[in-house]
Amino acid sequence: MRMSVKEVPEEYLSGYAEILAEVGRTGRRLTRDEVEGRRALGEQAAESGHGLRALVIRHLAATRVAWPRTTSPESVLAAVEQAIDAFAGGYERAQRLAVRKEEAARREFIDDLLYGRSDPGRLAQRAERFGLRLAHAHAVAVAAGPEPYDDTHPVTRSVEAALLSRFGDRRILLTTKDGRLICVVPADQEEVVRYFAKQAHAATDGGRAAIGRPHPGAGGVVRSYEEALNALDLADRIGLDDPVLHAADLLVFPVLARDREAMADLVDSALGPLQQARGGAQPLLDTLHAYFDAGCVAAQAARTLRLSVRALTYRLERIHRLTGSDPTDPQHRYMLQTAAIGARLLDWPAKEL
Length: 353
Description:
alpha+beta; Arc Repressor Mutant, subunit A; six-stranded mixed beta sheet; 14 helices; 6 strands; 8% strand
């Protein structure tokens, strides 16, 4: 709690009256040692939590009381200005140092939290300081845009202001890491991460956000964070254009990619014959992607590819003739769709299997 003007300790005015008296007699300016002394007192006052306004008022009151009999009032006023300026400079220097220490502590905590590099018990204690209770489950959302962002970037401030305006002082941790926006929230506040993703998408001029699944404990934050990062990476690799990705909806992809040799064999066996088509496999593979992404609705897939329904149907028939599997037949569809997903993951046919 800030002290009133009357409660400001006299120690922060130590030697001040004597300086004014000496200046009143001689008209001199403050010596270097006197300036440094006032600056040191300012630092001490800041470290003790006193308000600068009360300290300045206290100096002015002391000036009135200690005003010397002098033939050079301008020299005394100059000394008052010099003394208060040095005192305030020391105060502000201490404040800046405290802010830098706080920022460094916060950054260290963020790094330890997202990489799981600290003792869980100690990490949980530090987390309380930043509004997190790691005994509970948390979800992490990550947003990436066309440029890197840090904690002072206007985009970060914009998203932070939107979250505070909407949700107030909840247990939300908003930060940045490796140029991305990071939002950590309790698992029961799903609306917060959804709103964060929406605001980040808008603020980053069309950037993409991914939301990891909720997990308990400090290790759960790391796991959710990694899931969100993997979702962003996966979206880039396979060309997903959704502005908001949910890791829970993409679990099939890492499962399929776990056995690369088996996946490559499936792609080669099921889709390899498409390379015999005029123009190569890519146009027909794009047709499969559009068809499956549209829920096997030919009209919607045709619009996506800017084809007529008749032209799309011809391509599907061509795929059937080349591969022996009919995309419109439910018995064949699963294999072709799994192989198409594998082709995306393996970047086939651009890369050899």
